[in-house]
Amino acid sequence: MTSKQSQWREILSSNKKIALFVVGIAALSSSFIINNQVSTYVDHVQGQAVGDLILDNIPIYDLNFIFFWAVLIFWAGNIIYRLIFPKEFPFILISLSLFVLIRCFFIALTHIGPPETLLVVPEELSYYSFNADMFFSGHVGAPFFYALLTSVKNVKWIAIIYSIIMVVIVLMSHGHYSIDIFASFFIAHSLSVLMLKLKPRFID
After folding, report:
1. pTM for this entry
2. Burial level of 8, CB count in 10 A (0-12/13-18/19+)?
3. 164, 70 in Cβ contact below 8 A?
4. Splitting the chain (204 residues) into consecutive groups of 10 residues, what average pLDDT does each group show?
């Protein structure tokens, strides 16, 4: 791995890479705004909750504390890491924005009401608090997608393990239907195949 100084020097010495960095930040920020609008719409048109083979057979656990701290620590830690070693950062930003937009497309099509859950979003995060943005799970799919994108072995395994832990947490808290959770792996993998083909254009 090249040093953090040389990685930043490489980015700042290239107008193309600076532009990709700016585009990546703008793309991800825009995708979050679109996500807010689409999720708000879905909340207004949501239907009834449906049965679920797995959720119907396990009790609901209150895992709010673990759930929100796990998300915060994982993504904050990875943002800090990418700021220290930024070589892949523009690629990661643009890829995650695509992931969010594809998820917006799916949740706009799916208006099933949420399962009963004990998860409560903190008031300070209410901008991202929605009920019916079910399919597919971003909490599980995004870290798995991130793991498939990065070439840093330790980061890859941490993200995979975290994604598996989120499967357990989300199922136990009934935060998503089981199809939302397991389908996210397949969707994330499909998107990663596309983005990895484009990766040399961002890195080289």
Report:
1. 0.92
2. middle
3. no
4. 79 91 96 93 91 95 88 95 94 97 94 85 62 90 98 96 96 95 98 95 81
